[in-house]
Amino acid sequence: MLGKLRFFLAFVVLFMIVVNDPNVTSEPGPNPKDPARENLARVEYPSQNNVPWHPHFIRPHQNLESLFGEDWHVVARFNRIDRRHVYPGMTIKVPDDIVAARDYSPLPAEYPEAKKHKKYLLLDLGEQWMGAYEFGKLRFSAPAATGSKGYETPVGLYRIDARDRRHTSSLYRTEDDSGQYPMDNAMRFHFDENSVSYWIHARDLPGKPASHGCVGLFDEAMQNRVYGVPERPVLLDSQKFYQWAVGEGDTGRLELLTGGPVFEIRGTNPIYRK
Asked: What is the pLDDT of residues 38-63, one digit of tens each?
């Protein structure tokens, strides 16, 4: 009798778990609370019209590393997405020739407007991509996440006028509401008439414009510190840009700068195909 009672209680507990939270016992899949089922094949970047690619639907137990091995970061950059935002149920773009895509960059190798400048930053909103130029020659570049619809990153010519290696947002908090959103390796480029400041900084990259106007770059070290993933940070573009642009003599505190690099923002956000 006691054995039957234990079995009945265990069945009731299991039933309550499944009914109240199906994810506890189900296979990995899209979060039911996230209706997006993101399809990044719909995002149209002009440069990818010249790069053959195919869509891939992420299935349970698949991730970038299991699918593409050591070239996972090539596909991540191609999609402007970080590992934390790739989940079963979404669709990504996969270059047909991943080896050739290792050198993919939508920005020009030489940019005449930057020839007179030792350091010049160029952000193309339509490509969601930012480059570092030295006297007109592209030194390195990386994906970015800019302002979403209604919060578009302002276009124009700016100059980096402040830096803060451990900056945090005064307006927005993390997804789990555990603290203010981290903005590591922050470089301010604009301060508008409403006293809203715009920064280049570390952030999540979900594969589309997603910020409130700032410019976000890969930084898996920040994600590891805040979210615990990825276990081994690899993509550290925000650190690379920060060190190149304003790293000399950095104290780790908020500092105003004079004569910082010029920052040009051009274009409009990418088109979403139906």
From this structure: 899 999 999 999 999 999 999 999 99
